[in-house]
Design goal:
By secondary structure, the protein is of the alpha+beta class. It contains five helices and seven strands, in the order E-H-H-E-E-E-E-H-H-E-E-H. The chain has a five-stranded mixed β-sheet. Strand 4 and strand 5 form a beta hairpin. Helix 1 packs antiparallel against helix 2.
């Protein structure tokens, strides 16, 4: 019997964050990864016990073989509820902790902004700009001129 597959708000946010992060490099790659994750989740409709018993009681984990992601889900009589989609390097307990959602969002935003800044600095280097390191911070000549 096929089961309904539904996504928790956390799982939807996880997938959105995964797509945004990968899209910083390549939009088409981000789409391919998300499509593979969703395809694997859809497979749970027919084969709901795919994967392994989860680290957290009452959950199951489905490893996405093509990409380094894992879907955490809970089974009931008529549905499979995807509760999280995690990169395999993430600690499961930490990712499912009860921290407010905005805390996770702020962390992701920090990482996204850091990556964008780094990409801009790399582009400036390729254009011949000089990058100056002060402690752990990097500044381009334009940054320093603007702050003087």
């Amino acid at each position: 019997m096929q089961k309904l597959v539904e996504y928790s708000t956390r799982a939807k946010n996880n997938l959105t964050n995964i797509k945004e992060f990968i899209a910083l490099d390549t939009e088409s790659a981000a789409t391919r990864v998300i499509e593979s994750i969703i395809e694997a989740a859809d497979g749970l409709a027919e084969f709901s016990t795919m994967g392994k018993t989860g680290e957290i009681a009452g959950t199951r984990e489905l490893v996405i073989s093509k990409y380094p992601y894992t879907l955490i889900n809970r089974l009931s009589a008529d549905k499979v509820r995807i509760i999280a989609g995690l990169h395999q390097s993430q600690a499961l307990q930490k990712s499912l902790n009860p921290l407010p959602h905005h805390t996770h969002h702020l962390t992701l935003l920090f990482h996204l902004q850091f990556r964008r800044d780094l990409q801009q600095k790399c582009a400036a280097i390729q254009e011949g700009a000089t990058i100056i390191r002060i402690g752990s911070a990097m500044f381009g000549k334009r940054d320093l001129a603007a702050s003087v």
